[in-house]
Amino acid sequence: MIAGVFRRQRAAILTAALLLVAAYAINATSALRLFYPHAVAEVAALPAASPYRAGQRLLVVSPHPDDETLCCAGSIQQALAAGAQVWVVWLTSGDGFELDALLLEHAPRPTGAPLAGLGERRMGEARRAMAALRVPPGHLIFLGYPDRGLLHLLRENYGRPYTSRYTRSTRVPYAQALSPGAPYTGRDLERDLGRVLDRVKPDLVLAPSVRDAHPDHRATSDFIARLLAARGQAGRLRFWIVHGGLEYPLPKGLHEGLPLLIPPRGRHLAWQRLDLTEAQEDGKLRALREHRSQMNVMARFLLAFVRENELLTPQAAPSRR
């Protein structure tokens, strides 16, 4: 038995070491020089996204606080500048990030109240980030469902309450949420998201792609796509990707003059390029810096999304060949 434990530990250490070597190789200057010019040319050849227009009603559907800024801060600024109205809804409050809570609370294994406190903090950061982009406070909606639990709500916990492994809650614990005390079920989440659609009546919805590697992002995509399809409005969706594959996006860190490349997990999707002005890049950076709890933990990853363009696709998944 002990030998088996050691073998598993050795395998885990070897896997981690191989991933570190791969990450170093991918980030190495020589590797970037090999693939980067071709990747840049691919982005330059993409068609431009349709411009936003006056009177349009845009809804950004974000799994966690910070996703809305990473992939949509440019869209938000351009929509508002064109005279559109913008709303943002967050499905979770980001209360399942143990490393973040560990650094904030100095607890060896934070659960319960510390992680719920992290959720409160991240909602405050999201409000400040959207204030930096001039989104009206009344257009910000938090649902408060369990971080890292949305895929469970979509599947085995659609009708029976889910217990968060982080906050230990079975219900929405936030007074500022749309439905405080709502059970952690897919049915309740779907009902709340439907209420948001009824209130906003969006012409265009920006949401994560099912090709995103994060399970919360994939579940968010499924929930919103299902609701819009039932209303005959599936064509109003545009998708984006945050977790796009190993070491995406490259290069890491702040490089405002470089393009955001097509994510490996999103290859074969019909991407459109939304070009940002320097002022819009700076606005995105200001909003991103309001997510301080996340910047303290993974700044180089987050800053890598502040680029001269954003990427959107009307395709939920690649076409069958």
From TrEMBL:
GO molecular function, one term: hydrolase activity, acting on carbon-nitrogen (but not peptide) bonds, in linear amides
Annotated organism of origin: Deinococcus aerius
Protein name: LmbE-like protein
Stored InterPro entries: GlcNAc_PI_deacetylase-related, LmbE-like_dom_sf
Signal peptide: none
Annotated SUPFAM superfamilies: LmbE-like
